[in-house]
TrEMBL record:
Keyword Hydrolase tagged: yes
A GO cellular component annotation in the UniProt record: cytosol
Pfam families membership: Amidohydro_3 (PF07969)
Source species of the chain: Rhizorhabdus dicambivorans
Alphabetic keyword roster: Hydrolase
Protein name: Amidohydrolase
Domain Amidohydrolase: 43-552
Coiled-coil residue windows: none
Keyword Transport included in the entry's annotation: no
Amino acid sequence: MHDLVVRGGTIVDGTGKPAYGGDVAIDGGILTAVSGRAGPARREIDASGAIVTPGFVDIHTHYDGQATWDPLMSPSCWHGVTTALFGNCGVGFAPVRPEHRGPLIELMEGVEDIPGITLAEGLKWDWESFPEYLNALDRLPRVMDVAAQIPHHPLRVYVMGERGLRRERATAEDIAAMFRLTEEALRAGAFGFTTSRTQSHRTVKGDLVPGQNADVEELLGIGRAFGRVGRGVFGMMSDFVDETAEFAWLERLVRENGCPAWFLLTDHPSDPDRWRRLAEHMRQSRVKGLPIFAEVAGRPVGVLLAANTSINPFSMRPSYQALLDMSPDDRLTEMRKPATRARILADAVPASFRETAAPLLWEIATGWDRMYVMGETLDYEPSPDKSVAAIARATNRLPDEVAYDYLANSAEHFLFYPTTGYTQGDHDVIAELLQADGAILGLGDAGAHCGMIVDASLPTFMLTHWSRDRSRGPRLGLEQVVRMQTSATAGFYGFHDRGALKPGLRADLNVIDLPSLTLEAPEVVHDLPAQGRRLIQKARGYVATVAGGVPTFERGEHTGALPGRLVRAA
């Protein structure tokens, strides 16, 4: 008598091999039989007409704070994720001294758009060291497993204090201390170390992040911890101002310590050929036998613009800013008044704005040709005729009139502004990157960018768009899409007990009605601590999600089970 049998589904086992029919049997939280006809069970899940996949392993999330208070880990729990890894982009909350809690909150709010009031309310700070942070994570039951990496910026501030916040050069003693703390974190169960070297990452006050211009000696010194421990992954974001020099030290770090490394790779509208150059650098590194990988996104990083999101094309106009203190409903009511509409449309973005504001804000204030009406079908690969500029030309209106009237019509109307991944106006570059040698799927950023982006739905999007619905270019095979977010991500980081449907592995799986799988419309809710605002997106079509052999979600509803735990490396 098995504990649980998933009966009669089409098994897509996560390894990339062709799908096949059969049952999946589970005992004691472990897969005991995959394929064929399983015997009777205490509980069965009917998978007739559905696919059965491993649980999804999301390696690029920002649940560093949310994981300490939220057992559901939404939105990821609604999209089949059973393992979430955070500590990405060099930001996080450990190690930390009491006097630096505020600066770390400001850092996370600025880089990842997680409300500071939410973090101040939700974080209990029952840790100082990174091992103590892991212990705090270990104490909370949850629906999925979680794992962490040690982030550079808190580490630097912990060691260097105000000098770290001011981005001063680390001394030999500072580097030695960061090395020791990184080794301590890896031995306690951290899966890696991450940093950020991009000017687009700033604190809520506009300051560059602490490790943005860290010397190569500092990074190589920290990297020696991987060689000492014998495992772990090094990850980074970088502007690659000097591409050759950046790859030179990254290759040296990997060669000297025997660790894999990844860097974030997307296209960018200001430099359309950059992604090809970086991909070629990676190829050359891999030809040398060096395990350097590129983390790539499965869809454009898309800012959603609405009347009640963090920003929209009118946020920078003084007349619109007078509406920001209103409730969302009152703001929409005011926007629909003819006098208010006329005043805001006649208003101009201040001339000084371009020099003082972040580049993204200026782009959103003026980028009508790269801003798209999302529509009820949630089109993430919109054709040129759906841009605000094209609609304006076709209807003989000004672009800001088109955008304003669309947003004022409903709180559920979103404009889609892809910041990266859409330089050519389609997903062909993304398709090429996804299939490149050394590419790892990531960048869903679950838990982050609460008021602008909700790409945590990436696992569902990969299944619906890439394997079933794409019409503007070739699709990817279902088995390939499942492998990308199960055995590929799990194997890269060393989650060796999961990521495939094989006897002996952890029983994390999804039962999915693929023909009916649908992304629901994004919503703005205020359900974070201190009524913090965030975008969420649910899905329909998940028959069940099972974590550690226990059904956690059925037909989109939480079963009440909390089998998740902290996973420690090695």
